[in-house]
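Support case: magnesium ion complex. Customer-provided input:
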Amino acid sequence: MMPPDQETTSVTGCPGPVNNNNVIKCNRSENNSSVHVQPLNSTSNVDQISDELHETPVRFPILRQSLQPVTLKFEDVSYTINLGATGGGCFSISSSHPKLNLAVLNGVSGIVRPGELLAMLGPSGSGKTTLLTALSGRLPGKVSGTITYNGLPFSSSMKRKTGFVSQDDVLYPHLTVFETLTYAAFLRLPNKLTREQKIEQAELIIMELGLTRCRNSMVGSPVLRGLSGGERKRVSIGQEMLVNPSLLLLDEPTSGLDSTTAQRIIATLRWLAKGGRTVITTIHQPSSRMYRMFDKVLVISEGYPIYSGNASLVMEYFASIGYLPGFNFVNPADFLLDLANGVVPDTRQDDQTEFPGRPDHQDDKNSIRQFLVSSYKKNLYPSLKDEIQRSNQVPIHPGGVSTSKSSENQWTTSWWLQFKVLFSRGLKERKHESYSGLRIFQVMSVSILSGLLWWHSGTIHIQDQVGLLFFFSIFWGFFPLFNAIFAFPQEQPMLIRERSSGMYRLSTYFFARTVGDLPMELVLPTIFVTVTYWMGGLKPSLVTFVLTLLIILYNVLVSQGLGLALGAILMDLKQAATLSSVMMLVFLLASGYYIQHVPPFIAWLKYVSFSHYCYKLLVGVQYSKNELYECGVGVQCRVMDNPAIKFLGIDNMVRDVAALAVMLVGYRLLAYVALRLGQPH
Ligand SMILES: Nc1ncnc2c1ncn2[C@@H]1O[C@H](COP(=O)(O)OP(=O)(O)OP(=O)(O)O)[C@@H](O)[C@H]1O
Ligand SMILES: [Mg+2]
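Agent response - structure generated as follows:
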């Protein structure tokens, strides 16, 4: 089985648009029909690659080759962050600190062609993740220098051809490995493929990444035991491999893995690269076996490049500036990391005289680093710049990156399919949280306790009955509000990751979330009201009961909308929880139960309180206009004349329903706008 696009290219045997300029040469090895790309300027040896491909078993029949090869060039990339400017959502109210700038990257350059695997090496904090994020077009803020993809800047169409595996795995903890990969396949693979083909693709990835054993295990999270760290990482890689990206960027794909699995992952990356993809990975401590699989390396030290070029020439270069390991069998990666840390490894003693200006063991780390950076600028940078400039003159794969408006706006899947998949995924993921034992206990205990407290209260104690109705409106105002404020801040990393890959529209996500809320959030209030209504001795009429239930469910949706809006606006749980508790207290006081004679200048507060409308509606449906109650011994009074109820003014219930409708739509609209403004792209 093959996606239609790939079928076409495999017939020609050329993984991408090959034009008359003969920019790319395609070779087809006869025995296994593997296809690879040999860029014109690449120093790789065609025969050598062919041999390696003969050794590599043909895996992923449908992922054999890249559809549109991408040449990535980055020149003098620099990035500075303002340490005082980090913060939460689009309207974050965090205080600003004095401005402090940190230069994370300083003039990093390089060129990676289709078919090449570039490894970024450097000590922790040297800027590898930052550079990788910049190359994936996901770095917020201004990156100086130029980054081009086939000679063009980053675009939406490039976004969908780029696979990015972040250092921290962002996965839904309650989904199984199979579910995670099939949902990703449904969302990311084109409409041309059938549902079965997409599932088959996910199964292939599971096999390829050795995840068969844990196929049906939950992914888990730091607090929920699930997959091991290495397995989780492989699931993240699988999600990106699914779409057969032309440019694949991985942040430490081997960290935390045993050496055999790590080796296997790097071998897979190399195999993917040889299929015409451009692969860039950051890596800590590769073994020398792994190092040999890299085509290029970029070594960064505190944001400055100290080497950028062919992996096989690295030792030669450092020997030329006076750093040659004292013994023969050294892992080049260890040697490079020592140098990037400003530590001079054991070098040959007789070299001392040959390189008089070279810093040595006893010199401080900074002067060693400075020497390496200035050597890079003097010896490597000019030729690298020249290579980048030269390749600028050749139009590389002009068909590679489409810039037409229509292609930029194209989604791989339809709105409706995205909605269905996100809805079903949301239900699967959230059912654990919405129906957790703790939450059921919380609701049921309050329900039974309040039923017992108000046990068979009749109209004889009308004040108590009204109190129960008020309690309904407040409890089902607070509870959904506090649950909803978590929604967007918690899902933000996932939303950013998936939206950065162009997986779905924000509107689809938002609608799927809103519709998914209905079964998730309305079941518990229904049970609560059913239990407490009848225990509490409210009007024994089915119509009144159903109306009461509908009003409370309506109230739940409105308060949930407010919670979603607060979460989306602030994107900070602490701030959102504080603000919502203040708002809810104000609504509670302004609802008209506790205080009736409010000064006119603040009386308007009740009109913004959804609990006020809910309370009014509940009282309105509970008592009919001419209903009587015993207001004294043998004295009958009209319920509507009771001071507390009279004050509420239950005269126009349609207006109350309309006010809640405005809030229902308004809060959700506000949440959507806040999410849209808070999106990085
Ligand atoms: N948003 C940020 N706020 C503060 N500091 C940041 C931010 N982003 C990056 N940095 C700093 O920039 C430097 C480079 O970070 P980066 O994550 O790129 O390092 P790295 O090479 O990937 O490290 P590691 O190997 O540990 O993953 C670090 O010193 C880090 O603290
Ligand atoms: Mg990192």
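The chain has a mean pLDDT of 81.

Case will auto-close in a few days if no follow-up is received.
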